Amino acid sequence: MTLAAAAGLSHTQGFLSPTGVEIAFLLVGLVTFGAAVVTVTTRQLVHAALWLVVALGGLAVEYLLLTAEFIAWVQVLIYVGSVVVLLLFGLMLTKAPIGRSPDADSGNRWAALAVAVASAAALVWVVVDAFRTTWIDLDGRAAGSTEVTGEALFQNWVLPFEALSVLLLAALVGAIVLSRKAKATPTSAASADATPTGPTPGNGTTTRTPTGAATPSRGTSDGPSPAPGGRSSASDGRSSASNGQPSPQEGAR
Amino acid sequence: MHLAYPAVLSALLFCTGLYGVLARRNAILVLMSVELMLNAVNLNLVAFDVWLSKAAQETLHSGQALTLFTIAIAAAEIGIGLAIVLAVHRNRGTADIDKLRDTAEGHEHDGPSSDGSDSDAPATSATGTAAEKAEATA
């Protein structure tokens, strides 16, 4: 390893005598690339997400081989841990078919294949031509340990780091708003009418009758909405739950 | 390690993701392919940062910092994207991006601007001129 590094300083490393790290990188890279190809070509949608786990985990191993340990564990935590789970939930919530779906690929897949192969050939040619003799020295102090990454992140990159937290908060709020806006506008308007009238006035008997009157009207406004579109049963369950919730309070009082 | 190995792997992964984005029909599979492309970029960033941290004297570790930022932005992107896909699926009943053609131009019925511009143009190119006008005014 030290001989390889010493020889690498003079840029005399050949591709025909790979080091152990290079062989490991090549093998894991083959697994990663194969899993990525299966991800974009399989006809079973859930299998695509599971092969994506293999591809992303292989990339984490590649980060480890490049001595970027912190990035590797972040990759495992964020991608393999949460993003794939989120994608599986998305597949489940959009009622993706289990098993082979014949229309997983679009009609222009051959044009897409041509574009991908052409860009791959161009990129690989350019990259190999440009970095054919460049050598990464992997010896010595790890270039991406937690200490090094933390020092760099909190000395030079503090302001973008904090801005990123604001972006994550905005994404969180945006995802919640996008997820509940389409169906919740009539219910939230009705509940916004119903809930302040309950506790704020002093006399409870006269104001509780409008909420009791608002509950069947909300039920009738939710009643036709599953009928034309044939909505999911979760919206029926949610509307029936929102209808059923005030009635025990009325019964308890 | 030669820098060509991670660079070539990154290029291949990026083009695999490119194929997936272009060829897939389900929107969630398109999001998976976008994740592949982002990971290819991350591998490039990490490899070049490891190279530069040993080759240069003083470095900011900008590649790894940008990789962390890319991972966080990708997580935000996948959350927003899945929320959009779920909203589309709830409204349209499908997550098929080939069927979401409301903003498509030409060769189908287009919006209310077609009846105003077909007085001078022939009927075959009326939709094309209407689309051009809509594009010019937009």
UniProtKB/TrEMBL annotation, chain A:
<protein>
    <recommendedName>
        <fullName>NADH-quinone oxidoreductase subunit J</fullName>
        <ecNumber>7.1.1.-</ecNumber>
    </recommendedName>
</protein>
<keyword id="KW-1003">Cell membrane</keyword>
<feature type="transmembrane region" description="Helical">
    <location>
        <begin position="110"/>
        <end position="128"/>
    </location>
</feature>
<keyword id="KW-0520">NAD</keyword>
<keyword id="KW-0874">Quinone</keyword>
<feature type="compositionally biased region" description="Polar residues">
    <location>
        <begin position="243"/>
        <end position="253"/>
    </location>
</feature>
<keyword id="KW-0812">Transmembrane</keyword>
<keyword id="KW-0472">Membrane</keyword>
<feature type="transmembrane region" description="Helical">
    <location>
        <begin position="157"/>
        <end position="178"/>
    </location>
</feature>
<feature type="transmembrane region" description="Helical">
    <location>
        <begin position="24"/>
        <end position="41"/>
    </location>
</feature>
<keyword id="KW-1133">Transmembrane helix</keyword>
<feature type="region of interest" description="Disordered">
    <location>
        <begin position="185"/>
        <end position="253"/>
    </location>
</feature>
<dbReference type="Pfam" id="PF00499">
    <property type="entry name" value="Oxidored_q3"/>
</dbReference>
<dbReference type="GO" id="GO:0008137">
    <property type="term" value="F:NADH dehydrogenase (ubiquinone) activity"/>
</dbReference>
<feature type="transmembrane region" description="Helical">
    <location>
        <begin position="72"/>
        <end position="98"/>
    </location>
</feature>
<dbReference type="GO" id="GO:0048038">
    <property type="term" value="F:quinone binding"/>
</dbReference>
<feature type="compositionally biased region" description="Low complexity">
    <location>
        <begin position="185"/>
        <end position="242"/>
    </location>
</feature>
<comment type="similarity">
    <text>Belongs to the complex I subunit 6 family.</text>
</comment>
<dbReference type="InterPro" id="IPR042106">
    <property type="entry name" value="Nuo/plastoQ_OxRdtase_6_NuoJ"/>
</dbReference>
<feature type="transmembrane region" description="Helical">
    <location>
        <begin position="48"/>
        <end position="66"/>
    </location>
</feature>
<dbReference type="InterPro" id="IPR001457">
    <property type="entry name" value="NADH_UbQ/plastoQ_OxRdtase_su6"/>
</dbReference>
<comment type="function">
    <text>NDH-1 shuttles electrons from NADH, via FMN and iron-sulfur (Fe-S) centers, to quinones in the respiratory chain. Couples the redox reaction to proton translocation (for every two electrons transferred, four hydrogen ions are translocated across the cytoplasmic membrane), and thus conserves the redox energy in a proton gradient.</text>
</comment>
Automatic annotation (TrEMBL), chain B:
<keyword id="KW-0874">Quinone</keyword>
<dbReference type="InterPro" id="IPR001133">
    <property type="entry name" value="NADH_UbQ_OxRdtase_chain4L/K"/>
</dbReference>
<comment type="subunit">
    <text>NDH-1 is composed of 14 different subunits. Subunits NuoA, H, J, K, L, M, N constitute the membrane sector of the complex.</text>
</comment>
<keyword id="KW-0813">Transport</keyword>
<keyword id="KW-0472">Membrane</keyword>
<dbReference type="GO" id="GO:0030964">
    <property type="term" value="C:NADH dehydrogenase complex"/>
</dbReference>
<keyword id="KW-1003">Cell membrane</keyword>
<dbReference type="GO" id="GO:0042773">
    <property type="term" value="P:ATP synthesis coupled electron transport"/>
</dbReference>
<feature type="compositionally biased region" description="Low complexity">
    <location>
        <begin position="113"/>
        <end position="131"/>
    </location>
</feature>
<feature type="compositionally biased region" description="Basic and acidic residues">
    <location>
        <begin position="99"/>
        <end position="112"/>
    </location>
</feature>
<keyword id="KW-1133">Transmembrane helix</keyword>
<feature type="transmembrane region" description="Helical">
    <location>
        <begin position="66"/>
        <end position="88"/>
    </location>
</feature>
<comment type="similarity">
    <text>Belongs to the complex I subunit 4L family.</text>
</comment>
<dbReference type="GO" id="GO:0050136">
    <property type="term" value="F:NADH dehydrogenase (quinone) (non-electrogenic) activity"/>
</dbReference>
<protein>
    <recommendedName>
        <fullName>NADH-quinone oxidoreductase subunit K</fullName>
        <ecNumber>7.1.1.-</ecNumber>
    </recommendedName>
</protein>
<keyword id="KW-0812">Transmembrane</keyword>
<feature type="region of interest" description="Disordered">
    <location>
        <begin position="99"/>
        <end position="138"/>
    </location>
</feature>
<dbReference type="GO" id="GO:0005886">
    <property type="term" value="C:plasma membrane"/>
</dbReference>
<dbReference type="Pfam" id="PF00420">
    <property type="entry name" value="Oxidored_q2"/>
</dbReference>
<dbReference type="GO" id="GO:0048038">
    <property type="term" value="F:quinone binding"/>
</dbReference>
<comment type="function">
    <text>NDH-1 shuttles electrons from NADH, via FMN and iron-sulfur (Fe-S) centers, to quinones in the respiratory chain. The immediate electron acceptor for the enzyme in this species is believed to be a menaquinone. Couples the redox reaction to proton translocation (for every two electrons transferred, four hydrogen ions are translocated across the cytoplasmic membrane), and thus conserves the redox energy in a proton gradient.</text>
</comment>
<keyword id="KW-0520">NAD</keyword>
